[in-house]
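Reagents: none. Just compute today. UDP-glucose 6-dehydrogenase.
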Amino acid sequence: MKIAVVGTGYVGLVTGTCFAETGNQVTCVDIDANKVARMQRGEIPIFEPGLEVLFVRNIAEERLKFTTSLSEGIQDAEVIFLALPTPPGEDGSADLKYILGVAQELGPLLEDYVVVIDKSTVPVGTAEKVREKIAQNAKVDFDVVSNPEFLREGVAVEDFMKPDRVVVGTSSENAKKVMEKLYSPLLRQGNPIIFMDERSAEMTKYAANSFLAMKITFMNEIANLCERLGANVDDVRKGIGTDSRIGKRFLFAGIGYGGSCFPKDVQALAKTSQDYGYDFRTLHAVMAVNNDQKTKLIPAITEYFGGSLSGKTIAVWGLAFKPYTDDIREAPALENIRILTAAGANVAVYDPEAMDNVKQLLPDITYCHTAYAALDDADALMIFTEWPQFRTPDFDKMSKLLKAKVVFDGRNLYEISTMRELGFTYFSIGREA
Ligand code: UGA
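Predicted 3D structure written out:
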């Protein structure tokens, strides 16, 4: 099929590249001329494991192209994906100016029947608005469908190629056929394509992310209680996760969820609820608890150092909001580092991918080339991201480098018993100190 993808952010680029890989002709459109030029030269603008090899191959085999021109990009396209940003406005609601702007431009450019697909996470009712905008100037028939994405950063290619399900919101039989054809190579294992109306598809995305954020938050509160009761949240997680009604995934307690999706989507759904006269109390609790959870280790470390962090050197492992990404949006690490430095501590940090993204935001901390370099003469280590290399460190080396064997672990990477045997003072989440 001939596909256009408008917007080459994270979602657009993964969508475009993966559909090229399944044999389609894909043209990606972006207004950023620099970025387009770089992509035309085969330079990938984001870090996502497994994507680059597909990106380079599909450019070489001429299935993946880039342009700044919308009219050129959508030429002969059977489907047009809109993968544009929907940043939160000041009141928390998603700002639709990019999506509706492109929809407005699209109308007069359409020459034949086409399916326009909302891929961005958009408020319920957006498909109708996009349809209206296009219809203002369109001379041909078209459909607008909602097709939310459920990709996780870091494993986006796998999530795209082997989706648990594909959700499509449309009432048009034509559009259903087009979407079935488009996704058929990805649904070979029998995972379903679920058709529903546009509003329900839009709602599904918010419900999924909010539910997952709530699941994590619930576990974080169980962890907070475990600490007070002398129970171990990791055992409780195993104990409940084996119940198939609950499920094993997204039950890991820690220093809260971050990233570009959960915080934004939970906030947006709460705002939508409010706009429609409904007070979604669970979501307010999720936001408040998550906010507190992010900096939960600060009181513990301050107390450990007798009430003041002034002059202490704190090693930090991890900046990204989660492993396998360089994304630092809403990353708990940044807020923690700001508090540490404001309290007079010196911070030495290591992250395998995200340091370049932080240097401008936090110029006054020390960036180290290895995890061990960050430990040199530090009074304590704080861990904010569960990169695999932090899971099995050389504890002997750690002991020698650190001034004192003290670890504050926001991601529960180590067994309490191991740390105790090795003589570390070890604080983690929801487990005995
Ligand atoms: C999330 C969803 O998982 C995707 O399905 C969705 O498509 C995406 O948002 C989106 O809306 O675009 P993502 O933000 O990439 O994906 O990352 P997740 O792997 O879901 O992690 C989100 C946050 O939850 C991270 O900060 C992670 O550390 C935290 N988390 C996750 C926990 O604290 N505990 C867990 O058990 C799982």
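Residues 121, 149-153, 209, 212, 216, 250-252, 254, 257-259, 261-262, 321-322 surround uridine-5'-diphosphate-glucuronic acid (CB under 6 Å).
Action item: order primers for follow-up constructs.
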